[in-house]
Each structure stands twice: as C-alpha cells, then as structure tokens.
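Researcher: Quick sanity check before group meeting.
Model: Go ahead. Protein one:
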Amino acid sequence: MRVVHLVHSYPPEFRGGTEACVETLAAAQLARGDEPLVISGSDVRMESGARAGGVADEVSREHVGHIPVWRLRRRPEENYSVDARLPRMGDLVLRLLEESGPAVVHLHHTLNLTSDLASRILSAGIPVVATLHDYTLVCARFFLVRPDGESCASHFPLPSRRCFECVLPDFPGGAEQLEHELRDKAACAPVEAEALSSAIVPSQLAAKHWEQSGLFRAHQLEVVPHAPGIGGSKALHSPVEGRLRLGTWGHLAPTKGVHDLLEALRELPSKAVSLRVFGAPTDPAYGEELKKLAEGLDVTFTGSYRSEELREAAAGIDLAVFPSRAEETFGLVVAEARALGIPVVTSDRGALPEGVGSAGASVAAASPQALADLLREILEDPSRLAAWRAATAQELLDPASHADLVDAVYQRAIDTYRESR
C-alpha cells in the first residue's frame, strides 16, 4: 500500500513524540512491504524573494532511514497563528499528492503546513486517516493546559471564551484579530473532523475527550496505542542498595514538569537520590531555570540524546519520572521506559496513568510535594520497584503489530471511501 504521512516536522531536523511515532510507523510499514512517503513541514524557510511555484525552491527531497522525506518550506511571512490556514502550503501538498499517488493519506499534524488539510485532500479524491496526537484541532496550545498549569480537559467544547483569555496575552495581533481567528478555528474544526474516514487515538482517555467534543462520531474513533521504537537494555539492571537512581527524558519544556521533579528532589536526602536528564530545553531561559533548581543536587543534564544512549543508560536507572502538566494523549516516553524495562512514575494528567498500568504509579500534577512523598516512600521501601519492573512489558505493542493495526484502519478507510462514491 502506498501511504503518505503528513507531519509538521521530521528527523533529523526535529524529533519529538509525534515525529518519533511517525518514524517508527513508517519504518515498520516499509518492512512489511508498504510504500510510505513522509511529507513534512519545516522550520527552514524559503529564501526572501524566492518565487513560489517552483517546486525545487519550495520542497527539499531526501531519504531518512530508507524512507523518502519531502520537506516543505514556508515563506518568511507564513507564520503559525490560531487560525493556521496557509493556502499556498495546502496547494503545494495537493500537488505533491498528485505526483505521489497514495492510496491513503495519514495526517499526523498540520502545524507548519495548513490547518484545513483533511477537507482539501478528501476533495481531491483521496481518503484521509488522522492520528490525533494532541488537541491542536481545538486548542491553540495543543495540550489543553494554560500557561499557569491549569488543565482545560473538562471544558469541552473548545474553542471558547476561555481560549480567548488564555491566548490573548501572547497574541501579537490584538483582541479583535484573535476573536476573528478563534471563530475561524471553531468553524474549521468540524469540517476537518467530518473529512476524516477514521481518527486514530492512542488512548481510551483521548477517545473519551474527543467524544465529549462533539466533533467525531463514535465509529470514526479507533483506539490504537503507539509502539515505542526502542528495544530493551543491553545490560541487566543492577540496583545499588540505599540509592534511588532516577531518569527523565524528552524535550525540556515547562509543560513537561521537569522543574516539579527538581523541586521534589530538594525534599529528599541528596546523597540517596540521583537524576539523569536527557533532552534539550525548548527555551534557553527555561534551561537556565532548571540548572538553578538543580544546584546542590546530584543531577546530570546530558542535552540532546539518541535512543542508543537511553538503551545504554537503562541498566543504571531504577525509576523513570515524567511529571508532565500537559493533557497527554499517550506519553511516548512512558512506553519507551517500559520497553527498556524501567518502571515509571508520572503525573495524573491526561493518559499518562493509562500508559503506566501496573508498571508504576501516578501522583497529582503540578505538586512537587506529592511527588517527593512518593519518592521518599520508594526510597524507604524499594520492594515495589521489582513488581513494577516485572510489569513493564505487559500489553506493549511492538512496531510490527502496530503497523498491522494501522494498515487495517487504512484498508477500512479505503473500502468505505470506494463504497461512498
């Protein structure tokens, strides 16, 4: 099956959870005999004065891990906003789809592209499946969390007046322009949802939220958890008596709550607990804040990392901690930890507890004290770690099984589209 994946960015330019999921899925599809192509947005812009219309100026083509990747460049003035429709980018995507001739399009994210892709692609005669990696369709901040850390998960349907109050302090266009863009975003969302043959959601909680939104009919939503693209540790875990060695990884953004973890560590005996932080800060100022919070603690910041580094470090990590404040739809880092045989502690936001299962525990989000209390209990009685570690492999999908499930969704979408014509 020839399938085109549409995503806002792609390695090696950027690798976040969504990009990692697409990379793993495309590789598994290639291995099973499908023909995946990635069409990606990019933060690399066209040169000022370059003429649109010449595909060579607008698109760079390469192979990443044997997968063809076509990166689309925006003009300098084509910026993200609340109403993220960029007509030229939409036209460019359609031209490339006509060239590539996919049986189905898998839409992962519209950022850096245009927010009305699904309806445009369906109008061009191609069935569309989406994975709802986050809540971009209704939330300008993607993860239903305000800058003050408050969750918006219980405030569907969105967008609403609440969104106006949340976004306005950071919106350069002023109140009148924001009102206009929020209305357009609200009008675009149901059109895009209707254009999807299926919407894959990676957790039961995400499915529940989208049902509450009123945008999707029940038959459109298909729960398929992501598969971590990382294998087990090379070495057996070797605990150190009287020590609790923690690890956390991913992009270091305020919504991921690493500052909450560092504050929690200040409540614990410094000689008994260590932490390795894998990942680069999304904002230099936040990176400096984390370093200040880590002063006097046994904390190592590794910066950007490769999967191989996590695999090599896994034997020396007793517990992975992900105190995200975001309403995560899945939490790929949790699945990665479990695939490495590492038990997990997370916040109770979004689908993180669902991902933890019996392989760890969850505590209240945005509460360093609650996290410190749990870590202290584990430090005083580490016996539960063994049971959590034994449960890490339960109910995890491998990439090949995940690709089989997704391809079955594609086939249903293609069949339904053909029957409707």
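Researcher: Fine. The other one?
Model: Protein two, sequence then structure:
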Amino acid sequence: MYNGRVIHDLDPLTEEFIPEAMLHRNAQRKIIEDTLDPLLKGYKPRPLLLYGPAGTGKTSLATDIAQDLTDESGNLRTAYVNCWVDYSKFRVLYSIVQQIASPLLIHRKGTPTDELVERLERSLNSSRCLIILDEVDQLKDKDALYVLARPGVGLVFIADTEGALLDASLRTRSRLGTLRTVGFKVYSVDELISILTARAKHALYPHTVSPEQLRSIAISANGDARRAIETLRFSAEDAQRSDRDSISDSDIEQAIPQAKRESNERGISKLNMHQRILYAIIQEAKTIGSADLYHRYYEQVHDPVRVRTLRDYLQKMTFYGFVHSRGTGRWRTYSLAE
C-alpha cells in the first residue's frame, strides 16, 4: 500500500510492472506465440525480429510471452540479454550461460570464449531454450548468433529497425534462416489513453485524474507508452506530496518535461563507451562537423572502431533523439537534442 490520497499502489506506474493483458498488442502476441509454439513440441522455431520505436511494448510483450511459455512447459529455460550492456560476443555468451547453466564453474575474468561456447553448446543440446536479445543491433560481433542458432532454441531479437541484422555475415544469416519480423508502431493518442486509464484504475484512487488530463498526457508522450506512464506517475507523486486529493493541470505541466528528461537520461545511460565519447564530444562542441567529430574521437580512443561503425552509432543516437544531424556526407553536422 501507498500512504496518501492520490496513489494507493505505485507498482502499476513503474517500468517493471507487466499488466495481465497488454492492450493493443493482440496481433503481435498471436504472431509471436504461433511462431514459438514449435519450441514446446521439441522443434526449432523460426527466429523472430521485433522492431519499432522505444516505448511500443516490444520488450514487455516478449518477456511476458517467455514467462507464459516457461509456465506452460515446465522444462523450458529462458535467457534475456540487453546488447546495449553486453555488446560483445563474449559478454552475450557469458550472460546466457549464467542464466541457463550452472554458474559455479564459469568466471567472467580469465574464461576463454571457446570454453563459453563449449559450455553453452552442452546446455543447448540438453534442453530447450528461449533466448531474447534486446537491442540486438548494438551487438558488436553478430557471429555470436551463429552459436545460438541450434535445434531446440528459440531466438527473439528486439531492435528499433527491421534491418537490424543486415550487417551479420552471410554465414550467420544462412544459419539463422528466414526471420519472421513483427512490427510495433507507436501508440495512437486514443490507445495511450486506454493504457493510462487502465494503469490509473489500478494505481490511483477514483476521481484523482480526469479523462481530459489523461488525454493531455497521452498527446505529450508522442506514442511512447513508457513516457506516458512516467508522466502520470510524476504528476500523481507531485499531487500526493502536496497533500491534495487529485492531480492538477500544473502537476501535469511540470511532469511532462520531467518524463522527457527521464526518457533521454535512460537512453543515454545505455550508450556504450564509444557512443558516450561521441556524445561528450558533441556536448562540448555544441555543434560539430562529422570530419572534426571523427578526428576528436580517434584522438581520445586507444582501441577505436571503424568509421562505418561510428556512422552506425551516430545514426542510432539520432534515431533515438539524443543528437540532431543536419546536412549530408562531409557537410553533416551534429548537435545535442534540446
């Protein structure tokens, strides 16, 4: 319980909360469940690629279905890896081994990749597994996927674009086979309103927020359900701190930019080392041309990535709204998003 006159249960307004039914994602759920169904019968399912902008329910739906399949099967092992954090082949395999095999004999420091692969293959050969790789386009060496594409293993990849695996080697793509892609569009305003209404029903006391206020929050979120829910939470917390019994319009006006900042900071915290350096250079320069940006990056990094990879990183940072880019080719400039 949550003391106060506005919030009676904060949990439904947190990122970790998974509702009993995810609204407006029935079509995607059916495709994913139908595709993974062979896994429960001992067959290898087609790999899935879930793609779409942040806050559209990709990860929540994937992990929810994984839990349902685990409950139904009883002997299905699951592993979830966020490739923003574990972006090398070694780190991905290490994380999976820790989740589906006994972790006692595996140590992150001093463990050769070959030993990890051998341990992983033994585990995959002896049981059925479902592996979810979130932000798979951040995976530095996609040949790691070659090791995972085996009988009795279901693979779910999550990314922002449909072309997230196009840079994988022909060998790896051939091993994976034909991907089944599932698109997630941004939520409409009316869809966000229904999501917020359901969350408010479970989290807030009756009549503490009006339908008009929920519409204002939905419009401000630009189709991002996570951001909309955070805005509602911040608004409710402000009202509760002020010892009022309802959310005011000013609470929402203050919460909207706060939720936007939280969204940006959450994304920036996920940047890998190379992306953080690029971000810091742009932040210091205010506005910088691509050639100068690359030059400064190579001055600062002892083990740099290729220019093509830098372009991919910057494209990703632009897509997520961390930076703005203008112009093309050698005349392109970068600045931080406002």
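Researcher: One line on it for the slide.
Model: The mean pLDDT is 91.
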